[in-house]
Give the backbone structure.
Amino acid sequence: MDARYPLIDSLLGTLLLFLLFSRLGAAKQEPCLTCRSLVNNFIKGIEKTAGQNFGGGNTAWEEEKLAKYEKSETRLLEVIENACDNSDYECNKMLEQNEEHLETWWFKRPKDPINLFDWLCMDTLKLCCPEGTWGPDCAPCPGSADQPCNGRGKCNGAGTRAGTGTCDCHPSYGGPLCSDCAVGYYEEAKNESHLVCSECHRSCSKCLGPGEDQCALCKKGWMLHDMKCIDIDECGTIDRCKSNQYCLNTEGSYECRDCDKSCIGCMGAGVGPM
């Protein structure tokens, strides 16, 4: 850029950054979500333009004009113009690429009323799947159709043509179907349909109950002894810090802190005895 025109350079730089971040933000949008948003705005536009520009009278003239407007291309264009925000790159791109599909749906709608989302996003563009299914072939999510992942998690990619189809379990649950307790939790109560997982003691990564003496496996920085996790004093094993620092043991870890500025080396905080 020419240094003689700082204002122009600044504006160009701002514009480039805006375009860059707009594209980066757009790239993160899931196509099915974009399609759903487009359809929702399209339907809102239909509702907004219902009876538009008419006084609501009952004259034959108004009824005839209203009937023509309801199915007209003029109304369709009004709906399309407001189907996407100006800043929504992905929505506008999808709208531009699929105006013909929307026109097809619009003009066949009075004779064959169908759900626009199902017709456009699932059947025509094949961007979405029915709930409880995922991926290119809309495969069933793990678990039952009415309660994927046992109701303790979400099926990754559910309702879209993307994702992994695996269960993303809610906190405290784990396993392929979220039917187990997660690491750091234990079974407090369980039957065929109900599972309650509660957190282990802060020192345990696996446990049999909530107490500190019910550990089966310790977290890093702790050592198991008689079903109890004991904090390891990392500062008492090897020299872990720099020469102008001292080691402070903490629960499950340690910290290196700077010596006082008057010290060349130290064993702890402060300047020491005079």
Notes: DSSP finds seven helices and 14 strands in the chain. The radius of gyration is 31 Å. Helices lie at 6-27, 31-48, 60-70, 73-81, 89-97, 99-108, 116-124. Residues 175 and 188 are 17 Å apart (CA to CA).
